[in-house]
Amino acid sequence: MDHLSRDRRGTRPGDVLCRPAGVGVAAEGGRCYHASTVRKDRYVQTVTVTLPEDLLDLIRSKVASGDYANESQVVSEGLRLLASNEDALEDWLHDEVAPTYDRAMAEPESLLDLDAAFDGIREGLRSGKASAAE
Using CA atoms, how far apart are residues 27 and 125, in angstroms rounded to an integer? Predict the structure, then answer.
């Protein structure tokens, strides 16, 4: 069977997608497709990216340490972490920054001018140092 010509219809989670005959892993249950594995909710596809040497070294060191089985796992984890950080930033902007801004615009008299704000910061730092010295 020509492993590259078969399409992905009819695949199930856990089916193996493999490279041309003789390359990569053997397929389980006689199913063989091009490139990686079918996940529960999505197809995994092979992509090519260009990375600077320092990032390649980082990826290789993570695999060499045994923390990850292969380079794809390192990159996938990095992208999941990026998405999580972006979600956390969006939550912070929505839940804290926007309401604070809205309150400031609704009650501008409650805002401090810049000099008063820095005076308060300096005073807090002085009193914190005094407390630490006691």
Answer: 65
Q: Which residues contact 115 (CB under 8 A, 6 or more apart)?
A: none
Tell me what pLDDT residue 77 has: 94
- Tell me the β-bridge partners of 116: none
Write out the two tokens for 20: 């041309």
C-alpha 67 chain-centroid distance: 17
pTM of the model: 0.52
Residue 39 exposure: Cα atoms within 13 Å on the Cβ side? 5
State the alpha helices, DSSP H only, in the chain: 53-64, 71-92, 98-106, 114-133
CA dist 118 and 95 (Å) reads 25
pLDDT at 40: 56
